[in-house]
């Protein structure tokens, strides 16, 4: 069965610091997708990125970047020059075999203080 | 930008009462989901729905729960006799094509408080 581990429960940084959120996954599938979602204090779940297991290139979107390493089953998320608005809970997720549902990690709460 | 809409944002009910949580998925999407998140915990899958039937459900989704797509736009989750432990945030999601291969877009959630 799929499993997603986010070992960091909470991270506190000061604005403008860089921060990396770790995600380690387990799957027996040869083809799979990985996702990151953001849950701000208002509570909604906001899609950030989807990654195909065939594509190990790092992705950058503004201050956000993702490092996908199949060899270590990790899909880490880095925020560069963090801002207070980045304060949220971040979830890594992996679809189950058969792609019927997303399996979420326990989330990492990021607190960015001014 | 199209979005998933959930109503109400907060529902308070007495234990044993029935509740219906409503969702309007993104209009051209074909797959619909309900997830729940107990306060401070991770997001858990409840059920997926495609072509007017349940395609997968979790152990949480017992006989107290049901889903329905009563018309072309709404997708509902009914809890027949609420328990204290049903208190949680319930998220609706939809995706356009091949289930987990496609992006699931989530609504803002309904916070259910069972007293």
Describe this structure in words.
The complex is a heterodimer of chains A (114) and B (115). In chain A, 0% of the residues lie in helices and 53% in strands. Chain A has strands at 3-5, 10-14, 19-21, 24-26, 33-39, 46-52, 59-61, 64-69, 74-79, 88-95, 102-104, 108-113. In chain A, strand 7 (59-61) and strand 8 form a beta hairpin. Chain B is mostly beta strands. The model of chain B has no long low-confidence stretch (mean pLDDT 92). In chain B, 0% of the residues lie in helices and 49% in strands. At the A-B interface, strand 5, strand 6, strand 10 and strand 11 of A face strand 5, strand 9 and strand 10 of B.
**Proportion of residues in extended strands of chain B:** over 45%
The whole-number mean of residue pLDDT values of chain B reads: 92
The number of helices of chain A is: 0
Cα separation of the termini of chain B: 36 Å
Overall morphology of chain A = globular
SS summary, helix count of chain B: 0
Task: Write the element-wise H/E pattern of chain A from the N-terminal end onward.
Answer: EEEEEEEEEEEE
**Major sheet attributes of chain B:** 7 strands, mixed
Q: How much helicity do the residues of chain A have?
A: under 10%
Topology, number of strands of chain A:
12
The structure class of chain A reads mainly beta
Greatest interface by residues involved: A-B, 24 and 26 residues
Q: Any low-confidence stretches of chain A, pLDDT <50, length ≥5?
A: none
Number of strands of chain B: 11
């Amino acid at each position: 069965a799929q499993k997603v581990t986010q070992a960091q429960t909470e991270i506190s940084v000061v604005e403008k610091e860089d921060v990396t959120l770790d995600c380690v996954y387990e799957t027996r599938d040869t083809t799979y997708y990985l996702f990151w979602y953001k849950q701000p204090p208002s509570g909604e779940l906001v899609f950030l990125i989807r990654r195909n297991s065939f594509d190990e290139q790092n992705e950058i979107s503004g201050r956000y970047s993702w490092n996908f390493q199949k060899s270590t089953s990790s899909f880490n998320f880095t925020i560069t020059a963090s801002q207070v608005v980045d304060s949220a809970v971040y979830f890594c997720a992996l679809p189950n075999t058969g792609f019927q549902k997303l399996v979420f990690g326990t989330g990492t709460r990021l607190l960015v203080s001014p | 930008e199209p979005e998933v809409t959930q109503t109400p944002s907060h529902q308070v009910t007495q234990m044993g009462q029935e509740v219906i949580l409503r969702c309007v998925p993104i209009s051209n999407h074909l797959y619909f989901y309900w997830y729940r998140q107990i306060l401070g915990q991770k997001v858990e899958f409840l059920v997926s729905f495609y072509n007017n039937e349940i395609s997968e459900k979790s152990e949480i989704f017992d006989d107290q729960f049901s889903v329905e797509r009563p018309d072309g736009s709404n997708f509902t989750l009914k809890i027949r006799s609420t328990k204290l432990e049903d208190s949680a945030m319930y998220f609706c999601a939809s995706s356009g094509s091949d289930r987990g291969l496609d992006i699931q877009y989530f609504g803002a959630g309904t916070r259910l408080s069972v007293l």
